Amino acid sequence: MTDQFAPPPALGCRSAPVLKQRGQREVFCGLTGIIWLHRKIQDAFFLVVGSRTCAHLLQSAAGVMIFAEPRFGTAILEESDLAGLNDAHAELDRTVNELLTRRPDIRQLFLVGSCPSEVIKLDLSRAAERLTQQFAPKVRVLEYSGSGIETTFTQGEDACLAAMVPVLPASDARELLVVGALPDVVEDQMLSLLEDLGVGPVRVLPARSIDAEMGIGENTVFALSQPFLGETHAALERRGARHLAAPFPFGDEGTTAWLAAIAAEFGTSDETFAQVTDAPRRRARAAIAQASEPLRDKSIFFFPDSQLEVPLARFLTRECGMSALEVGMPYIHDGIHGPDLDLLPQGPQISEGQDVDLQLDRCRAARPDLTVCGLGLANPLEAEGLSTKWAIELVFTPVHFYEQAGDLAALFARPLRRKSILSTSAEVAAE
Fold first, then answer.
1. Which of 167, 250, 266, 325 has its CA 20 to 30 A from that of 92?
2. Is 54 annotated as a binding residue?
3. In the chain, what are the domains?
C-alpha cells in the first residue's frame, strides 16, 4: 500500500513536552458507558452494585424507557450493607437469582461496581466467578468497575470490554478484530468498506450477542475504533493478538489512514483501495468543507474528558482549519494515540491528567474561540463569554468514518454559529 492520505506535518506532537498534572479532576461518572453498551450488546444486562444516587444517575442519563423493559438496573446498597451488617454476597446472589428468573432472555450479566471494593464491601470478581459456575452455560457473568472515583466516563466501556477478553475462546484463525462500540449504522458502514477492500474475516468487540463467532490468538490482528480502550488493548495483547496502530477514523484523513493500515496488513492493492474509498472520500471532504466554514482560523481548547481529544484535535486542525491551544487527555498511551500525535502540528500544549483549577486559569488566559469540556464546566465558562462544546455529546453522536465526517465538523461549528446569531440579534436590539 502506498500512502493514501495527506503527508504528516514536518513537526508533529508525538515528541512534544507533556504537561502532567495530578490534582482535582472534573469528570463524568464511568457508569455512563452502560447507556450505550446496553443498546449495543443486545442479550446483556448491566447490574450496578451501588447506591440510590447511582440508580438516579442511570435513570436520568438513559431517559424513560416506556416500550421495553430496560437491560440495566441497580442493586442498591443500604447503610447496613456498607456497615458490613449484612452478608453482601448472599444479598447479591438473591438479587441475581430474582433477576434471571424474571428475565430468561439474559445471556450475559455484567456486575458493575459503582465504587471501589473497599467502599462497597464486596468483592465482585469472586461474586462473578461464583455466579458463573451457578448459571453456566446459559448465562455468563462478568464484572468491572464503573467508578467515577477511579475513571473518566469513557473508561467504563474500556473496563467492560477488557473484562470480556479473558473469556473469549482461543483461535488460530487469521482474523481482524475491530474493537469499540459503534452505533449499528456506523458499524454496518465500516463492515461494508472492509468487505469491499477484501478484508476478512472481520469480528467486532463488543458483538451484538454472545452467540457471535469470535476467538483470540496469535493470528488475530486488532484495530481500535475508539481511542479510550487502553485496558482492552493490553488484555488483547496478553492473549497474543497484535495491534494495528493507526490514526482514528474521524474525518477523511483519519478514516483513510485507519483503513489503509488494515488494507496493508491484508494485502489490498492500491487500485482496489482507491476504487473503494475515492467516492466516500470526496463526499466526506465536501461535507467537511461546508460544515467547517465557521471553524476556520478559530482556536480551540480541550479539557481532558472523553479521551477523544487528540484525534479530534488532529481532525479539527488539519481538516477544519482550526488552531489548537491546549489538548488535554485523561491519559496518553503512545501505542494508541501516537499516530494521531504524529499528525497533529506542533503548537498546542499537550497535557495529561488534570488539576482543574490550574487548567481553568490557562483557559481563561487563552480565551479560545471554542472550549471542549465536561458538563460541570460548560455553564460557568459560557457565563464568562466562552463558547463550549460538551465532550459527552461526542461519544453519544455517530461521528466515525466517511459518512459522518460532515456531522462531526458540524458539532463543533454549532456553538460558534449560535454565538454569532446571538451577537447579531443583540446588536440589532440595541440599535
1. 167
2. yes
3. 18-25+282-430 (3.40.50.1980), 30-151 (3.40.50.1980), 175-280 (3.40.50.1980)
